[in-house]
Amino acid sequence: MTNRPRIILLVATAVLILLIISGTVLLGFVIYWGLGYALGHRLSFNLPIFVRLLGLLLLATGVAVLFDVLRYRRPLDILVSTSETFRKMITRKPLGEKSVRTEPLVPKGPCVYVRNPMYFGVVTIPFGLGLLFSSTPLFLWGLVVTCWFWFVEIPFEEKELQALFGDTYTDYRRQVPKLFPYGRKYRPHDTQEV
């Protein structure tokens, strides 16, 4: 792929990412308004301060995880990888074809605790904002974006990674949770007793 089409593809990917974010935010607000209309009153949390502070902690965690991911993956590599995934989703191109994806499967940083740390970071941000500002629409945005990753994005990407990395990915997937870390840590060539 020459430089010009590659740049166009990367820009289109960035625009698609912004559209997905905007769409999930809008869907969160539509659910909020729809539920409010169906129930006959406005939904609101009115959360106590300690719960709102928990939201601040979630927000800080999400931002910290995203920055930690950037210590191990360059933003351009992330954009190229995302672009390739979207292209394969849209065109139904065969999975496992390396094309422009060059990164090896070497879990480092937050990837040793969760298979999708970027998505975890993205998901915790709207939940954190929803709790911090006691905002039902923002909290619903978190639910929508979680569903997008859980049911659409991650399953496709995991098929792709399975096709690319085979047994190595199977072992990684068996050891590390999909989206929400809960203490398990990846160990290459797991030697746990059966």
Could you write a compact summary of the structure shown?
The protein has 194 residues and is mainly alpha-helical. It contains six helices and no strands.
Written description of the protein model:
- With 194 residues, this protein is mostly helical.
- The chain has a single domain, classed as Up-down Bundle (Four Helix Bundle (Hemerythrin (Met), subunit A)), CATH 1.20.120.
- Helix content is 69%, strand content 0%.
- The chain has helices at 3-39, 49-72, 75-91, 117-132, 136-165, 167-175.
- The longest helix has 37 residues, at 3-39.
- The mean pLDDT is 85.
- Our count of domains comes out at 1
Q: In one word, what is the shape?
A: globular
Count of separate DSSP helical elements: 6
Cα-based radius of gyration, to the nearest Å: 19 Å
The tally of strands reads: 0
Alpha carbon gap, first and last residue: 47 Å
Estimate percent helicity: 55-70%
Question: Can you tell me the CATH class?
Answer: Mainly Alpha
What's the multimeric state?
single chain
Order of helices and strands: HHHHHH
Q: Can you tell me the residue ranges where pLDDT is under 50 for at least 5 consecutive residues?
A: none
Tell me the strand percentage band. under 5%
Structural class computed from helices and strand pairing:
mainly alpha
